[in-house]
């Protein structure tokens, strides 16, 4: 299926895929060290961008929920554009230069620093731009780190267990989120004892959550940097300037399309539905607080239960992945997400009788919000495993860079449709009710991703064909 790498030309003795080459190197210790990064990353994903800090940023202290939500969505859309332009080239260059682990460390450190700087976001409208900028820039470096981290999946797994390993990583991330959120709840949001970090003056307790999150991520990211070997520098690799790297990237994309177009189709389909998946977590806590009236402590309690459910879903999805294939797992997950999200949108925060049962708004979000969490993990884990099955030897970083780029090339979709739905609904509904309609924008993105995915072949049918260098 894939790129123009002279070392991978016909007749070469090395494995045709990086996954095959990793068979003899896999070990439980390396898998645990690799998954530790996922565990630590929950401090940025769950605490900062989903359930605590973005809820803080979209509170009335920063100018109102609707306005602040729109500003946050716009900042994330700009971040997505930057990722789309840079991610594949950074992956390509780390592959060729044997610097996959190095750049994982550098980008992880950048995320930790940006997260810590959120301490200086005081609860006043003039600090909204600083807050959303730090979160957006953190997302950029987090995605760069994720390119190299995901590429390592082929180094620490085998064709027989790659789905399980990918699901285990996602599950570790969700469980890490639970522990991090419990600590945040007990030390900062609803402190069990009186200490300076419990002070709510100038939201000191919430700003200290950013410092905690930075340290959590940094510490748990360290094991993978010691346990997993650095990718060997490709013997044929040449030092390329930035523009030359884009030229090489264009030739490789053309080669992929010519030899295995379904790889491109999968990248496009996953780009769309992964943007919807990201939006579920990015805006989930915001909707819980703004639409369903959850206090911050309630948002965190929901997050804890949601992460338990998501971890179970990711692990079970990984086991199913190895048995029935990643495509079926993804399709089933997307259908589940669409059903659960549509129920939340229709029922909203009112009291209804549904299926013969009386539902309060908060009950609706608890039940169907947990169903959303159940289905997000399998879709994410199987999407990663799908691509790792296809990665040619020594080129996982570039392929996952394309994975990030195609995702971020359309990453404006969910934030834009979320914002647009709120904007269009605002003059038609009561004040404060418009935010709920942002769910509609997210559902549209998930449905579009599902429809594009349906005709895509499974990875066992999208065989890799190696194209010699031009």
Tell me what portion of residues adopts beta-strand conformation: under 5%
Give the helix/strand class. mainly alpha
Q: Average pLDDT value?
A: 82
Strand order of the largest sheet: 1-4
| Main sheet properties | 2 strands, parallel
Number of strands: 4
Order of helices and strands: EHHHHHHHHHHHHHEEHHHHE
Please, how many helices? 17
Report on the structure:
The chain is mainly alpha-helical and 470 residues long. The chain has one domain (19-455): Up-down Bundle (Growth Hormone, Chain: A), CATH 1.20.1250.20. The chain has 17 helices and 4 strands. The chain has helices at residues 18-21, 28-51, 53-57, 65-97, 100-117, 128-151, 153-156, 162-189, 204-227, 242-259, 261-290, 296-324, 326-347, 361-390, 396-409, 413-425, 438-453; strands spanning 2-4, 352-354, 357-359, 466-467. The strands form 2 sheets. The protein has a two-stranded parallel ribbon with strand order 1-4. Strands 2-3 form a two-stranded antiparallel sheet. A hairpin with a 2-residue loop joins strand 2 (352-354) and strand 3 (357-359). Helix 4 packs antiparallel against helix 15 and helix 10 (242-259) packs across helix 11 (261-290). The longest helix has 33 residues, at 65-97. The radius of gyration is 22 Å and the shape is globular.
């Amino acid at each position: 299926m894939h790129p123009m790498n002279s070392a991978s030309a016909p007749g070469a003795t090395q494995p045709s895929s990086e996954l095959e080459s990793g068979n003899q190197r896999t070990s439980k210790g390396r898998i645990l060290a690799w998954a530790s990064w996922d565990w630590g990353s929950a401090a940025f994903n769950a605490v900062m961008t989903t359930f605590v800090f973005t809820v803080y940023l979209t509170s009335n202290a920063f100018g109102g929920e609707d306005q602040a939500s729109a500003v946050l969505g716009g900042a994330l859309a700009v971040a997505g554009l930057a990722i789309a332009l840079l991610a594949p080239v950074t992956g390509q260059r780390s592959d060729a230069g044997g610097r996959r682990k190095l750049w994982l460390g550098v980008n992880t450190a950048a995320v930790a620093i940006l997260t810590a700087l959120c301490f200086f976001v005081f609860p006043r409208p003039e600090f909204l731009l600083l807050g959303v900028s730090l979160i957006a820039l953190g997302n950029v470096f987090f995605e760069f780190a994720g390119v190299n981290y995901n590429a390592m999946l082929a180094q620490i797994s085998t064709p027989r267990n790659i789905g399980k390993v990918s699901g285990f990583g996602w599950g570790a991330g969700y469980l890490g989120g639970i522990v991090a959120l419990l600590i945040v709840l007990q030390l900062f949001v609803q402190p069990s004892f009186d200490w300076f970090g419990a002070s709510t003056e100038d939201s000191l307790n919430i700003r200290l959550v950013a410092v905690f999150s930075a340290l959590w991520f940094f510490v748990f990211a360290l094991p993978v940097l010691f346990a997993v070997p650095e990718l060997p520098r490709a013997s044929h690799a040449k030092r390329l300037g930035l523009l030359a790297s884009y030229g090489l990237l264009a030739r490789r994309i053309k080669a992929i399309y010519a030899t295995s177009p379904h790889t491109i189709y999968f990248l496009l389909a996953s780009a769309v539905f992964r943007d919807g998946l990201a939006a579920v977590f990015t805006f989930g806590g915001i909707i819980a607080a703004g639409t369903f009236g959850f206090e911050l402590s309630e948002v965190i309690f929901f997050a804890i239960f949601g992460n338990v459910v998501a971890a179970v879903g990711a692990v079970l999805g990984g086991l199913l992945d190895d048995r029935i294939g990643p495509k079926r797992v993804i399709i089933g997950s997307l259908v589940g997400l669409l059903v659960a999200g549509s129920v939340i949108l229709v029922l909203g925060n009112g009291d209804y009788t549904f299926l013969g049962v009386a539902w309060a708004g908060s009950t609706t979000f608890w039940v169907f919000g947990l169903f959303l969490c159940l289905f997000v993990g399998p879709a994410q884990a199987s999407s990663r495993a799908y691509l790792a099955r296809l990665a040619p030897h020594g080129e996982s970083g570039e392929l996952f860079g394309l994975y990030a780029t195609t995702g971020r090339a359309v990453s404006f979709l969910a934030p834009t449709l979320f914002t647009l739905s709120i904007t269009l609904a605002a003059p038609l509904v009561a004040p404060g009710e418009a935010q709920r309609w942002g769910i509609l924008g997210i559902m549209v993105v998930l449905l579009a991703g599902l429809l594009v995915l349906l005709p895509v072949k499974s990875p066992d049918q999208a065989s890799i064909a190696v194209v010699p260098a031009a």
